[in-house]
Amino acid sequence: MKTGNRACVTGDDFRNSPPVDHVGIVERAERFTTRSIKSITKRAGLNMVLNMIDLTTLEGADTPNKVRQLCYKAEHLHDSISGLPSTAAVCVFPPFVKTAREALGDNSLVKIASVATYFPSGHTTLKSKLEETRRAVSDGADEIDMVISRGRFLSGDYNYVFDEIAAVKEACGDARLKVILETGELATLDNVRRASDIAIHAGGDFIKTSTGKIASAATIPITLVMLLAIRDHYAKTGKMVGMKPAGGISKSKLALHYLVMVKETLGEQWLTNEWFRFGASSLANDVLMQVAKLESGHYQAAHYFSKD
Amino acid sequence: MAKKKSSPDWEYASAPETTAVNIAKRYDHFINGKWITPSNKKYFATTSPSTGRKLSEVAEGSKKDVDTAVKAARAAYNGVWGKMSGRERGKYIYRIARLIQERAREFAIIETMDGGKPIRESRDIDIPLAANHFFYNAGWADKLEYAFPNMPAKSLGVAGQVIPWNFPFLMAAWKIAPALATGNTVVLKPAETTPLTALKLAEVIADAGLPDGVVNIVTGAGETGAAIVNHPDVDKVAFTGSTGVGKLIQESVAGTDKKVTLELGGKAANIILEDAPIDQAVEGVVNGIYFNQGHVCCAGSRLFVQENIYDEVMWKLKQRMDTLVIGDPLDKNTDVGAINSKEQLRTIKRYIKEGVKGGADIYQPECDLPTKGNWCPPTVFTNVAQSSIIAKEEIFGPVLAVQTFRTVSEVIEKANNTPYGLSAGVWCDKGSRLFQVTGALDAGVVWGNTFNKFDPTSPFGGFKESGYGREGGLHGLGAYLDLPL
Description:
By secondary structure, chain A is an alpha/beta fold. Helix content of chain A is 44%, strand content 10%. Chain A has an 8-stranded parallel β-sheet with strand order 7-6-5-4-3-2-1-8.
């Protein structure tokens, strides 16, 4: 595909990321939410959503038993409805990767993702971040969710941020790397775009909005900016990059609007859990409630669905 | 841009809006607060452009009917409305606005059935905006002496108003609301292909308890409109429609002291400069030309792209066009609906043929169009010359002509090189340049980093052959007053 010859992201000068018009992005984002998703499209969409969830527990109070329960839920979302998929992954802190691997075994469809690099602040030495990453991978993690150094980014030290991501990517080995931009701390959509470009160019396999640990998490406009960065990269290089909005997506309807956005921005080839994920803890149950409603014709009370 | 699969996995299932609305088998004229049968007893059908199905039939207005309506309007002006205090007038207009809001869904559905525009647009834009025009003007009714300080806010008398088929309900609101707020009475004629929502508005006006004869609605075709314009007892003519008809009106009012506002055709330039946020600009281009199937006088039908970003803009534009949903306008997911009439479809097709013949490159997304009704896929022409017909003449359909430019001065010259001057748009990330270019464009409305945005507080109207006079805002009120200017 031919592309523009405007200097977008060239060499290592990330000051030249393309501009983003906030008003225009918000307007386009609202258009996605006016799509009406009905009947078979809804049923297929809900199944996709379940299959794209990184079922997450990232609490200071996490224990091995909590993680084992999470792993069971990931494979058995709601056994009273047949034909449900498993979630895409479980997402845990590094010390629980071994537990998760034991619980899931080696042949599970459910991947194990772990938030290495001193999640959520990222404030430690590069050496510690790389050590933590290597340990999580050797313990059995399939995917690493790293955080970028937002302080460095905001002070304009883009090359530092780039180099750090590249180093973590190397430490990941065969594990796929998701780069968390923590967009709630980046202040502008121009910054979201710039951080996306840096993460993609530095080797991130996925870009991810948020840690879920601050109030401002994933939104449709922010995710749209990141999807556009992915699309531009694909147009230039033919290389696909995945997207993971995380935090703040707890309702089925909103999740379906995200799928609409992915379909209309990147195309249907991104509509698999290889390229799109939801980072969420409570979304699964809301989707299950909707699926049960489509199956039976009426809503079931929330206590019919396991709270893990 | 993602490779198209032969069988897409996740298509949107149809999500049709209900059509359980009340449309009478037959509508008479609304004159002097009553439904009056046409003097010639003739009616004509109004059909749905998306199905070809007949929806209803409406009265064919004769000269005699128009005369009856003007007489009723004159009597209401002399007897009640012209003398009523602004505060009292305002109450009626607020009531109309609220009644429109209450019945918004019904009006949106009928607008879409009768005119072919997507329900998303009639629901989210046409009807709410129409209500807002009544709200806005109602607020001015008792404040005219502050709107025009040190000038007596004297009304004109009877306003004869002729409106087009592209925004039937909204245009009725644009015309009626300021006329009522300023103390004039009205004879309005909706377009012959889209009369139903204006007649529904007559129901609202009756329900609002407006005194008889303040608003009269006469249906019919061009001759009925001519009878209104030419009626000797009409004090003010307000017309929205084609430049051709606008010129005829201009001729026919010569030598009279009728006040006139004309809102006519356009061939707007939409300009993307090299530093623009391209994805948002592309979105604006799509909204600029494919909104309402391009049946928009201020549509951004000429796209100017700076040469060094041309390739990127074009692949992004084509990709966005591929995601547009074209079809049943009542489906909530439809982006581009039906062409309003067979006649207009013929015109559009003639221009498309002309473009291809002239050597321009055509692109239309692959889409399955319904078999019944009037349809034209979104169309873009590239490799278009400034001198080609598709870049010069108003097509009034979903057809975009793309040209490139090298410098800012070149694009300003090209953009202004047209007999029209209704609207324009500029996309640019640098504030100073944005103001430089927008300030140099000869157009009544110029949008910066957006397109096709409307608000009751903002005046709207043209330069050159796009007409004169303004609608909306204070300017729009002034057009219905005898101000000593």
